[in-house]
Amino acid sequence: MSHQPPISLWPDPNALGPVTDLYELTMIVGYLSSGMAGKQASFELFVRKMPPNRAYLVFAGLEQAVGDLLRLAFSPEQVEALRGWPMFRNVPGEVMDALAALRFEGDVWAIPEGTVVFPGETLLRVTAPLAQAQWVETYLVASLAYPTLVASKAARIVSVAGGRALLEYGARRGHGPHAGFLAARAAYIAGFAGTSLAEAARLLGIPASGTMAHSWVQAFPDEPSAFAAFARTFGGSSTLLVDTYDTLEGVRRAAAIEPPIPAIRIDSGDLDDLTRRARAILDESNRSSVKIMVSGDLDEQRIAALVEAGAPVDGFGVGTELITSRDAPAMGMVYKLVELDGEGKYKLSPAKKTYPMAKQVFRQRDADGRFAGDHVTRADEAAEGEPLLVPIVRGGRLVGPLPTLEAVRDRCREQLAALPDRLRPLDARPDYPITYSDRLEADARRLMDRVNRAGI
Amino acid sequence: MSHQPPISLWPDPNALGPVTDLYELTMIVGYLSSGMAGKQASFELFVRKMPPNRAYLVFAGLEQAVGDLLRLAFSPEQVEALRGWPMFRNVPGEVMDALAALRFEGDVWAIPEGTVVFPGETLLRVTAPLAQAQWVETYLVASLAYPTLVASKAARIVSVAGGRALLEYGARRGHGPHAGFLAARAAYIAGFAGTSLAEAARLLGIPASGTMAHSWVQAFPDEPSAFAAFARTFGGSSTLLVDTYDTLEGVRRAAAIEPPIPAIRIDSGDLDDLTRRARAILDESNRSSVKIMVSGDLDEQRIAALVEAGAPVDGFGVGTELITSRDAPAMGMVYKLVELDGEGKYKLSPAKKTYPMAKQVFRQRDADGRFAGDHVTRADEAAEGEPLLVPIVRGGRLVGPLPTLEAVRDRCREQLAALPDRLRPLDARPDYPITYSDRLEADARRLMDRVNRAGI
């Protein structure tokens, strides 16, 4: 797929102004009223803490987040509605006019999609007039955290699948139908081969995968006639679901179809045992070419067990566990003010150490090209390694076309290949060195001293 | 809010045809090719098993699901894309034309939104030509499961909040920004007072709630000037966030503001201790009218603990735990063929007992009006109690206007009040009697016998 404008999933992508927490809007109105809206602010987005069962994250979601950001605006009826709300009713008309006229005209730097990232490092930085930079908080976090959760979960699944085909089958289990699109894209970035969600496949230009449901088989008088009808319609594309009645009998019936079908799917039962028996039946029936797909509440643990046991599975369909990132359905991704008119800012909280000032992240590699550690500096410092944050938006416009989905997926493949081995096991502890530059440490100390002294 | 057409969250609500799993489309093409597309089918939607930590569910999401269903169609470019996919490439043009022309023209019966429901009972039934009824599976499940999860979680929170205000604050933690809308609506149905998501509040006509972020306080030279600026802008609507630096010092500063502000918010720390100290400071400062809001990783357990301990909290903002239904982020909601041209159908699986034939659910109450048990019958049977499934769509059109959101919320309030006491504790076991009519049992036995005999 070539460089398309980012896909928007909204009825009117030019009316996303109030798709945000109300407090962003009250703060904007407050900044406008206090003459502070134009101060130059930098906010940074990062993950506070590694979610459970994760040793690395795959950053995803940037295309939708940035695409929507560039079109951020209020429709006239939205502004009209806001004017009538209790908290805005006494705000001077010219302030509400200024809110209505708001656009995002700032800069965005970000780590490219598909990059392996870690908590405590800046993933995205917005530099813009304070009102604009504040506006985008809710939408950016809502757009980036979920795809990152799904891509990170998908990467774990890819890591144990031993190269077998992985298909995202979760559409009906997503948190609303739109989540299916975001998940299909995130899973594809992390190495999945396709999705069952037809419209996601079409919009993204990625493979759609699907076979039949049990209802197909039930709709016919018996299984052989159901299989025959499907094969008549789809010929060489007919993957048959064999576990509606007796699974092995279903395999025998599928094996008897002429010309041979490409694959069968088993959706229930002891998959290790059933796939071995199915493989034997298929091979004895001169159907060595027929592949075996499995599905049904699969996650990385069950897939790893099947692969390690040597079960003859050619592909896995993964639904609920992936699309909900079930063992870690949320994470503490935050967006914090770090700099205002050149002055460092951060929330003082002993439990949540963060650093002021706009930052850059440098990734260092060892002699084998594996990730050795990340070094966080001020944005104006130089350091060894690859600077991960790159300019995406300048003055409210894309610096250049966003990478294609294939390019993002390629990047992710290279990134996952460069993971240190100790982070690969499913039960790996998060153990990746992140260091902060002396200047950042000094900035943090200076700010802490000032706050403590002034008792602000 | 009066009877509006259901809100759609899609760029083109008339192009949702492929927002479904590919296998629904392959099956439709197969049914069209096999001359079976017009057979009259009934599919039923139900939850297989109670999710963890739940003893009852609140059914929600029907308005969006049905609204989108009525407009279901393919755009010309969608059909063009499908024609080029490998599995459809050899399908005769007239079959693809028939797919392209598909509309939903069937009937839908459903339990009204806001009703307390249980696993094993029919929540919604579609009766339509087989191709149409199959088409809607993925979209219906994706639209109904998530709001039901959120409304069910919200009901638990409402049950322990002792009448204190509850606000849905989760927008940034939802699985993509659209989830925020669905969650705001579901939480409101279950008794929440409002949402932080401004656009959801506008579209739904419900209260928007929001204060300020820590970044507001940090943007000013000190906390007093930040508070003063906010109060200058918003006067009587100014809820001040007091925990950016020293929480109790923040409370003292908020208490000093003239005229008095309506509320403070505390977002971190030991909320039991801090709210008591804050209350004392406010009361000593002649600020008994100032309410105390709390937020920060709250769930029903933490809220129950604060309420039981008598912490002086006036309102709770609930985010991540609610919007992700974190302890139960998915559930086994399924949509199964139960009847085809008058003949009973169901998937035979010892672990998953279900019943064939179109069904009705009768709810029986005890002398106090509490729910005593549900009795599931064939749709053409009569029984004691309230029949829960009502006609919603007939021949592809709404039978009448859908209930307003306020009416749904009222129904939910009445439903929750009628819960048996044993289901109310947060750790209640799912223990609600559901029985099946003799005719259903006989239908199930007959079908099982026939399948076993025929070896299909």
Low-confidence stretches of chain A: none
Q: Mean pLDDT score of chain A, rounded?
A: 95
Q: What's the alpha carbon Rg of chain A, rounded to whole Å?
A: 26 Å
Give the CA-CA distance, first to last residue of chain A. 53 Å
- How would you name the oligomeric state of the polypeptide chains in this document? homodimer
Q: Tell me about the biggest sheet of chain A?
A: 7 strands, antiparallel
Number of helices of chain A: 16
SS-based structural class of chain A?
alpha/beta
DSSP strand content of chain A: 15-25%
Top-tier CATH class of the largest domain in chain A? Alpha Beta
Neighbour order of strands in the largest sheet of chain A: 13-12-1-5-3-17-18
* Count of domains of chain A: 2
**CATH third-tier fold name of the largest domain in chain A:** nicotinate phosphoribosyltransferase
Main interface by residue count: A-B, 108 and 108 residues
Fraction in helix of chain A: 25-40%
Q: What is the total tally of β strands of chain A?
A: 19
The coarse overall form of chain A would be globular
Report the CATH architecture of the largest domain in chain A: Alpha-Beta Barrel
